[in-house]
């Protein structure tokens, strides 16, 4: 197993299983924390240029 890398287990005449060494997946970079306040402000409507609120 260690020199070849894999072993094929077979039933009479046909291969059934392939046994190979376990290789762990590559490590991912950690996720950056989300800034929910910045995301909320990004989608808020901008204030008008006059700075006065419009009431109906």
Task: Tell me what the structure shows.
It is rod-shaped and about 85 Å long. It contains one helix and two strands, in the order ββα. A two-stranded antiparallel ribbon has the order 1-2. It has one helix at residues 36-42; strands at residues 6-11, 14-20. It is α+β, with helices and mostly antiparallel strands. β1 and β2 (14-20) form a beta hairpin.
Residue share in helix: 10-25%
Radius of gyration: 30 Å
Please give the number of β-strands.
Answer: 2
| N-to-C series of helices and strands | EEH
| Uncertain runs | none
Query: Strand order of the main beta sheet, please?
Result: 1-2
**Beta content:** 15-25%
Alpha-carbon distance between the termini? 80 Å
Morphology: rod-shaped
Largest sheet properties: 2 strands, antiparallel
Mean pLDDT: 80
Number of helical segments with 4 or more residues: 1
Structural class: alpha+beta
């Amino acid at each position: 197993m260690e020199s070849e890398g894999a072993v094929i287990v077979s039933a009479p005449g046909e291969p059934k299983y392939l046994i190979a060494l376990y290789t762990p997946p590559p490590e991912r970079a950690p996720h950056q924390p989300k800034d929910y306040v910045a995301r909320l402000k990004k989608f808020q409507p901008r204030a008008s240029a006059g700075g006065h609120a419009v009431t109906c």
